[in-house]
Design a protein that fits this description.
heterodimer, A: mainly beta, four-stranded antiparallel beta sheet, 11 strands, B: mainly beta, six-stranded mixed beta sheet, five-stranded antiparallel beta sheet
Chain lengths: ~110, ~110
């Protein structure tokens, strides 16, 4: 069991570039989420999915896009990167209301 | 609006010096309260879930307690390896979403 995996671990982008952060889980969890973590602000929910084909917005969705075509994968797309999106991004998954497990994170720097 | 506030922001302890971290919350309907540990450069790691006031959970030197308004994470006789950021999160009754506090960074000196 690899749990929740994320790629890449670190990425540098220029303003205006686009990219996709990958997230996969092998626990057959229906619920997957993306968070960003900024100093002093805690983890904030960007988007989440309650199953394949179903996604919804979280607290800070602007500038991000998601899709969920399979149970295992939940990629996060940055459409046109901005310096304000410099952050550490975590993907998480769980089954229903049970314990949520986090991936190792992707550190993103937008210049 | 739901709020989760953790205090203090940072805590420096001498090895063996016990202390407590606080997580106070206001939420429309609480299903559960979670504690996570986060090491630098890593993702949060699950520690405990508490569901009802009066409940307590223990793991090694850590003990979590819950009241109707707050939770405490007690660290007894800490060791340097207990140094980490501890995150508190409340789970909403209706949609199971988690709302996180900003965390308490604990540093334990040998």
């Amino acid at each position: 069991n690899a749990g929740v995996t994320q790629t890449p671990k670190f990425q540098v982008l220029k303003t205006g570039q686009s990219m996709t952060l990958q997230c996969a889980q092998d626990m057959n969890h229906e619920y997957m989420s993306w968070y960003r973590q900024d100093p002093g602000m805690g983890l904030r929910l960007i988007h989440y999915s309650v199953g394949a084909g179903i996604t919804d917005q979280g607290e800070v969705p602007n500038g991000y896009n998601v899709s969920r075509s399979t149970t295992e994968d939940f990629p996060l797309r940055l459409l046109s990167a901005a310096p304000s999106q410099t952050s550490v991004y975590f993907c998480a998954s769980r089954r229903g209301g049970e314990t949520q497990y986090f991936g190792p994170g992707t550190r993103l720097l937008v210049l | 609006e739901d709020q989760v506030t953790q205090s203090p922001e940072a805590l420096r302890l001498q090895e063996g010096e016990s202390s407590s971290l606080n997580c106070s919350y206001t939420v429309s309907g609480l299903r559960g309260l979670f504690w996570y540990r986060q090491d630098p450069g890593k993702g949060p790691e699950f520690l405990f879930t508490l569901y009802s006031a009066g409940e307590e959970k223990e793991k090694e030197r850590l003990k979590a307690t819950l009241t109707k308004k707050e939770s405490f994470l007690h660290i007894t006789a800490p060791k340097p390896e207990d140094s980490a950021t501890y995150l508190c999160a409340v789970q909403h009754l209706n949609d199971y979403k988690l709302s996180f506090g900003a965390g308490t960074t604990v540093t334990v000196r040998a």
